[in-house]
Amino acid sequence: MKSGGLRLKKRQPAGSGICATGNRALFTAPQKNIFLGLTDLEAASATSFLHSQSNLNLTAATNATSWDNIILGLELLQPNKSDALSYLDSGAPAPGRYARATVQFGATDEPYIQEWMVGPLPVTNGTTSCTPLNYIYNKGRGYQRVYNADAEALAAFNGKIGSEVLDITLQLLNGSATNSPNDTLVIAGNDPLIHENGIIVQWNQFWGVSTSFIFDETLLPTGLEFKVNVTGRNPSGWSVIGWYYNGNFYETADDLRKAMKVPGFSILGPNVDGPWGSTDQAGEILPNDQLYPPISIQPNGPRFSVDIEEKYVEWMDFSFYISFNKDTGMQLHNIKFKGERIIYELGMQEALAHYAGMDPLQSTTAYLDSMYGFGAGSYELVGGFDCPDYATYLNASFYTTETTHTHPNALCLFELDTGYPLQRHLTETYVSVTKNIILVLRSVSTVGNYDYMFEYAFYLDGSIHVTVRASGYIQGAYFAKSGDYGFHIHDKLSGSMHDHVLNYKLDLDIHGTANSLMKTAIVPVTETYPWSGGVARNTMKLEKSFLESENEGKINWDPNGVFTYTVVNKDRPNQFGEYGGYRIAPGIGNTAFLVIQNSTSLGQAANWDSHHLFAVRRKDTEPRSAYPYNSYEPEAPVVDFNKFFDGESLDQEDLVIYFNLGMHHIPDTADLPNTIFSSARSSMVIRPQNYLPRDPSRNTIHQVRVNFNNGAVTELENFGAVKPTCSFDMSDVFFNISSFDGEVIIPEYPYEPNEYYITNPGG
Amino acid sequence: MKSGGLRLKKRQPAGSGICATGNRALFTAPQKNIFLGLTDLEAASATSFLHSQSNLNLTAATNATSWDNIILGLELLQPNKSDALSYLDSGAPAPGRYARATVQFGATDEPYIQEWMVGPLPVTNGTTSCTPLNYIYNKGRGYQRVYNADAEALAAFNGKIGSEVLDITLQLLNGSATNSPNDTLVIAGNDPLIHENGIIVQWNQFWGVSTSFIFDETLLPTGLEFKVNVTGRNPSGWSVIGWYYNGNFYETADDLRKAMKVPGFSILGPNVDGPWGSTDQAGEILPNDQLYPPISIQPNGPRFSVDIEEKYVEWMDFSFYISFNKDTGMQLHNIKFKGERIIYELGMQEALAHYAGMDPLQSTTAYLDSMYGFGAGSYELVGGFDCPDYATYLNASFYTTETTHTHPNALCLFELDTGYPLQRHLTETYVSVTKNIILVLRSVSTVGNYDYMFEYAFYLDGSIHVTVRASGYIQGAYFAKSGDYGFHIHDKLSGSMHDHVLNYKLDLDIHGTANSLMKTAIVPVTETYPWSGGVARNTMKLEKSFLESENEGKINWDPNGVFTYTVVNKDRPNQFGEYGGYRIAPGIGNTAFLVIQNSTSLGQAANWDSHHLFAVRRKDTEPRSAYPYNSYEPEAPVVDFNKFFDGESLDQEDLVIYFNLGMHHIPDTADLPNTIFSSARSSMVIRPQNYLPRDPSRNTIHQVRVNFNNGAVTELENFGAVKPTCSFDMSDVFFNISSFDGEVIIPEYPYEPNEYYITNPGG
What is the ipTM of this complex? Predict the structure, then answer.
């Protein structure tokens, strides 16, 4: 569907202009955002250029079958850091723009993905070239065999199986999955595919189809599963090689049929859709809930500056650039504090959701979600609910299968009063309190059943809080002999246990790139002092040390939090000889790593999941801890994070920290219908330590000193803060939800910028 | 100073009535708050009654010297739980009111404190009695020897020492401490006093007196310290028995003088007051900071109900009573959710700040702050800064040395939109989001240099978040050979390392008092399944178990957070056989226990500091983990928490959980001038687990479901929430700071309710 004007839709945040606002000119970033994704034109020209390469033998995506070669993805190949720094710091020209093209070669018996590098962009005859992209993949090649190239054929195959066992599904599940519009069941299988004795297999389960209340079938597992040998590309070679029901394995459907005829066979029945799974308001209205709750307003308008096009933001003493891509969503670049870069790059790299269970599907499921795409799943935010009514929004764009997708208003930026002060002290004669105003950048990525809220919050003390929260529907297991893997939370539903682990890259630069990682340990000691009269005292001490090499670079937090890690520059001690820098420490909740050791499902595909924190030397050849298709071949992934650890020095080198956020999730009834953000959350705080002479939040005028004597205020010092005094209408405060755009899609091959169309999320 | 009308001062919160507010009647608690502190009349009559007991030989506090017997404190003796439950649940009469009187017996060579029980109140001839209160103290007696009864004499003695070493302080510190108004130094000693070879000693340090900028001398240590034998009550028996400077111990001042004459003796110089220690706004105004930041408003007024007199609150499905006392400040009682009690008692019991250092004062300092009094230090809050402008305030009262102190507006209550949603899910056809509105109860206690912000936040999902944050001035050490104990953060200042550990009592009642503590462990396993073809898979499992007895009741969190603890009622499984209850899990930041093992300074005085979490059987004889004067005799404290652990069953008993919040604090330059709340904080979340059939937040109408198709909204379901549409004036939004009351003090003996007077905090 075509529609006018929406591509450039800019939201007018609610509440703007209710009082006098700042008279700030149109804001332009001081430098080009060299990290920003491909422009439409770049994407179109690169696509066109790729199609002109006869060796690729590409078919236009619109016409392609699974037996064609297609451009699966196209992203900016992020510039090498050295080139980027030359531009950012030394006025050198911007680094050349290259695209990273993910090409799926389907026209072969052994389909595969190969990454290609196209550039420089825009395409110019003679200089632009197209070469295999291998140097950033430590498998040696940006190459991955594809074992599920024929998804449509497989769905048809599974539907055929569903038809063949209709007698079973009717009897056990009171439902059918026969590739018919009247199906009451769907078939969905485990991810990743299983490599087993030289064949490729998948476990599938029948799931209930939501009829009205539950908007995700993940609450309706049936417990009937079958195993398919999906090896090869010829569906006639595929076969069902096993069945699972209620703890038992059957080699064939007939074996299951036979068992069903044996007296005493338990038919457990399906999970049934109902109001219990609906997210809608339900139950009695809470006392006084008919009154409107407190709401945050922004009387003087936004106090940050944003270049919407370049995705560049300045707020107080911070500035940063934002990029966005299909795999990992929003990323931050060149974060400066007080004019000096503190972070070159910060962003989520990959997220794992690893299940366990009695049944094969849950047991073998270990999603690496960047394959599905955190950027692809990051849609328009709901003003007034996802973000305050007055938030400012940015669009997000990415490329997939020869189309550029724009998700309007997918990122929001806003200031917030946290509701508690930043600083406070009372004496006999005065009290001093400072407001805690923060800047938040937020997006929400829906990956199937789960909604991940990603957030970067900037504080006046120079710290950055990195937070992820999870809501949405759990993926439940059918409750049958599964008490060891989760709570029994509804009729036949187990809150299937799983670990979320989200890996972030943090490239801090403290006074340049030559940095070291200081460890501070608080240790109990028994010590005799010159003054202790020979008595040994039980006390504690600091032990400071530096990590020497990557051999020490896999780190776990201490249960009592006695270790802290700070990136410093040893060549730049402060006037007192201390090494100033930024400390990395857990914020809210647990920062989980994966409980499973050497996961059979994951192999080597997510070796960043084994610890809380990692320190490595930064290299242009190691830009990311993960690769979206890593789990296609778990024992030989394209990027094996373990290979980053090759003993290199961490002493005054350019360091990269990878840290994990996450949670161990054992869903209980409180996760019905949805897991809630306030429960499933995790954060890391990146905070200055001995970095400045004192707390920089003293700069803000939004503090008060009240001097008093015997109840009378003798001085009220507000440091020049002026309270707005205008009158305004509450109806101007609320964000007006008048539209909701899923995806605005532009065909890139052929490039038809005016033929864009709008679809629903995932459409 | 006398002043009219202030005693009953009630704040009109800002922003009330800006739009139509609820038409709620005056609100009265359904039951009497039997936990509330003594009334004026009760306190006055108990005081009078105590004075009539000739065996106590009391002197009125106004006339008393350190050689008299005085009433140091008077509190409500909290009712025994069984009596309280009879009243709360079964309509029995309210339990009799008894006062707990802390009497200091100074009229003896060996002064001591004895706790007394006075009641029932009000005093009635013949029935009211006064007996030693011993049963709640596991030393066997509510008795404690006092070793610092003669504080004034000791100050004079120290001043005399200061005068005797004027030559030294002038030369080393360029200052004087001679008990003169012109002193530029003060002398302050370590806490607790040291028991050493049969004598009592204290280490004192000279500290700089703040002249203008720094409002706490704790930033101005000098590094010159002396050790005094303070044994006995005769000042002529007191003596200086050692000196410390720059890492060296000197037996006498003359030894130090001699050393000072040796060439090469280092005079390190004092820390000097200056703008570096001022909390005021300083430095360039931040970009756009002249604009007013976002602010939370409450357009329809408060949505909770509060009985101001009874300190009873109802909000959504929660209700609770608040009490307040001098030692520990605010406490919560009889917290109900959906009409059923979930918590009988919740409150902070004691807080430890344990320092370590090269110098004797820091090394021997281990504050147990309830002696100073968290209630005593909990003063009027600053509207618009400590709490949102629209917050509702409660007064707080306590008794000390025969006066009742009221701190107006010391507690605040408010709802807040957390700025992120509680629930969220997006599908191809709709998005559902729920606001996260919470109720917060807050107080701030200033104990010397530090300001502790205590907070209980109630969430729509039935969870309670218990948070403490710390701001104010650090207690610094003089920087001399102290690099192993903190960072060098200013000229001669070490950010002296210390551990904050705050112990909370949590008496959960899940469907009654017969409860058990379920442990859920996530464990890595290698398992072969019926369906796995003989292949052993690396995966994970849940292991559920129950703590059998107090022998297992000392618990640490796992570094990877794989253990969870839930209080359940095994006799009341839910329909699926799961045990519903409330889970206790760390929230924000680290929940520290003390690093020091068997602290020489603390002895057995704070044995609750050794682990993260404790589970014990509740007993009327063990109401609190601590006693304010425990550190007077560290090796034989009045309450030794270790004695709570006597192997009793934890299987379907009335359980009490004690948990610790806290932080390991290694102050750095970012703590100058003040530590900030967003950095020094810790929280615990008490959350329902399988307690209800589903998430109770579905009840709220402040959620939205947006159905859409191709960018158009097809349905906007707001569940009846009505947005206010009134017009209002911003000048009505802000809290007007027109007065600041420290303490309103009423003499209780003789009782002169109209002779109250107002003083500054600590006045």
Answer: 0.97
